[in-house]
Design brief:
heterodimer; A: mainly alpha; B: mainly alpha
C-alpha cells in the first residue's frame, strides 16, 4: 500500500480526491456545503 | 561549503517533489489541522469585524479573510515558528491549492474558459516573451551566472517555484542557484500580495481585469490566487484561470531552455535523452491537474444545457454551489499555508543581487502586464 502511494504523483492524488468529492456531491451524499 | 544537510532545502515545502521519506497520513494530519485552524481564524475575524462594524454603525473596509489567514500564518512562522510535528501537513498547502483549482471548474462554463482563457493565452505569450528577454538581459547586466539568470527568468515569467524546479532538472543547475531563485520568487510573491490589491483599488480595476493582471504577473500560483481573492471573490476566480493558462505553458518554456542548454552541451545525460521524444517531455512537464479543472468545468457546462437529456449528465445549480464552496475551503487551507511557509528571515539570507534582479524584473513585468490588460480591457471590455 505504502509503495503504491509513493509511486503516484501529487497531481494524481489531487485529481482522485477532487473527482471523488465531485462524485459524492453529484450522487447527493453531500447536498450543501456552507461557506 | 555548506552541505545539503546544513542548508535549508526550500523545495521540501513543495509536495510535488518526492520527499526523502513520504509522510504517512497520520503524520500529515496535525499540519492540515493547523492550516484549517489558521484559515478559519481568518474567516472568523473577517466575519466578526464586519458584524461589529455593522452593529456599531462604523464604516470599516471589508478585509477579506485571505489577508487575516496569511497574516496569522506569518506571525506564527516568524515568532514561535512551526513545530516539526506540523511541518509535513503545512507543506500540503499546494495540494489544497490544486484541489481548489480543480473544484473551481464548477464556477466556469467551458465557453468562459475558451473566451477568457484564449485572451489570457495570447497575453501570456506576449508577456512571456517580453519578461524572459528582459530578465535575461537584467541577469547579464548584474553579472549573475547564466543558470541562476535562467531560473530567475523562468520563475518570474512562467509560474514561480514549479517552473524553477522543472527547469533546474532540465538545465542541470545546482541546488544553490535554485534555492536562491526560489527564495527570491517567494519573497517577491509575498510583497506582491500587498502591492497588487492596493494598485488595483487605486486604478479602480474591474474584477475581470484585475484577476487577469494578477494571474499574468504574480509568479507563484498560491500567491496569484491569494492576491486575486484579496481583491474580490470574482477576481480570485479570474486570477486562477489566467494563472492556470500560464502554468499550462510551463512545458514549452522548459523544453526551449532544455534544447538551448543541450545545444551548448551543458544539459545532463537524462535531459538530453528525454529530448529525443519532445511530446513525452511536454506531457511530463504539463500540470495534469488542469485536466481535472477542465473535466469539472465540462460537467458544469453540461448541467447548464437547456436540453434535459444533456443537463442530467452534469451538475445542477445546488451541486455547483456545493462544489464552489468546497473549492473555497480548499483555498482557505492554501492561504493559511502561504503564511506558515518557511520564515522570511531565511529567505533573505541568500544575498542581495538575485533579489534586486528579481525585484526589478517583477516591477517591469507587472507594468508590462498591467498595460497589456488595461489595453485589452479598453478594446475588448473584459
Amino acid at each position: 500500500m505504502a509503495s503504491t502511494r509513493s509511486r503516484l504523483s501529487t497531481d494524481t492524488w489531487v485529481i482522485v480526491l477532487s473527482l471523488t468529492l465531485a462524485l459524492i456531491v453529484r450522487i447527493g451524499l453531500i447536498k450543501t456545503v456552507p461557506w | 561549503m555548506a552541505t545539503s544537510a546544513e542548508r535549508p532545502d526550500l523545495r521540501t515545502e513543495y509536495p510535488s517533489l518526492p520527499p526523502q521519506e513520504p509522510p504517512t497520513l497520520r503524520g500529515l494530519l496535525p499540519g492540515i489541522a493547523l492550516l484549517a485552524v489558521v484559515g478559519y481564524a481568518g474567516k472568523f475575524v473577517e466575519h466578526f469585524l464586519n458584524t461589529y462594524a455593522k452593529t456599531h454603525h462604523i464604516t470599516f473596509p471589508n478585509i477579506e479573510y485571505v489577508l487575516w489567514a496569511i497574516l496569522f500564518g506569518v506571525v506564527i512562522a516568524n515568532s514561535v515558528g512551526v513545530p516539526r510535528i506540523f511541518r509535513a501537513g503545512v507543506a500540503t498547502y499546494e495540494f489544497w491549492l490544486k484541489a481548489g483549482i480543480i473544484l473551481l471548474g464548477a464556477r466556469f462554463i467551458l465557453g468562459d474558459i475558451l473566451k477568457l482563457g484564449g485572451i489570457s493565452l495570447i497575453l501570456v505569450f506576449v508577456a512571456l516573451a517580453l519578461s524572459i528577454t528582459f530578465m535575461t538581459w537584467l541577469g547579464h547586466a548584474f553579472n549573475l551566472n547564466p543558470k541562476l539568470t535562467t531560473l530567475l527568468a523562468v520563475g518570474s515569467s512562467v509560474c514561480g517555484v514549479s517552473a524553477i524546479i522543472a527547469t533546474q532538472g532540465a538545465i542541470d543547475a545546482d541546488e544553490e542557484d535554485s534555492s536562491t531563485a526560489i527564495a527570491a520568487i517567494l519573497a517577491l510573491g509575498a510583497i506582491s500580495l500587498f502591492a497588487f490589491p492596493l494598485i488595483g483599488h487605486v486604478l479602480h480595476m474591474s474584477d475581470h481585469a484585475y484577476g487577469l493582471w494578477t494571474g499574468l504577473a504574480v509568479d507563484n500560483t498560491a500567491e496569484a490566487t491569494a492576491a486575486g481573492a484579496l481583491y474580490s471573490d470574482a477576481a480570485g476566480k479570474f486570477a486562477v484561470l489566467a494563472k492556470t493558462c500560464r502554468n499550462a505553458l510551463i512545458g514549452f518554456v522548459v523544453l526551449a531552455y532544455a534544447i538551448q542548454w543541450a545545444r551548448k552541451g551543458l544539459a545532463n545525460d537524462t535531459t538530453t535523452a528525454q529530448l529525443e521524444n519532445k511530446a513525452a517531455f511536454l506531457w511530463k512537464k504539463f500540470p495534469k491537474f488542469v485536466l481535472g479543472f477542465l473535466f469539472i468545468s465540462l460537467l458544469a457546462t453540461l448541467g447548464a444545457s437547456t436540453n434535459p437529456a444533456i443537463a442530467v449528465l452534469g451538475f445542477n445549480k445546488t451541486q455547483l454551489l456545493a462544489l464552489g464552496n468546497l473549492s473555497r475551503w480548499a483555498f482557505l487551507l492554501t492561504f493559511a499555508g502561504v503564511g506558515l511557509r518557511p520564515n522570511l528571515k531565511d529567505l533573505f539570507k541568500q544575498g542581495a543581487r538575485p533579489f534586486i534582479v528579481g525585484a526589478l524584473g517583477e516591477i517591469v513585468i507587472a507594468v508590462i502586464t498591467l498595460v497589456l490588460v488595461l489595453g485589452t480591457d479598453h478594446f475588448y471590455h473584459l
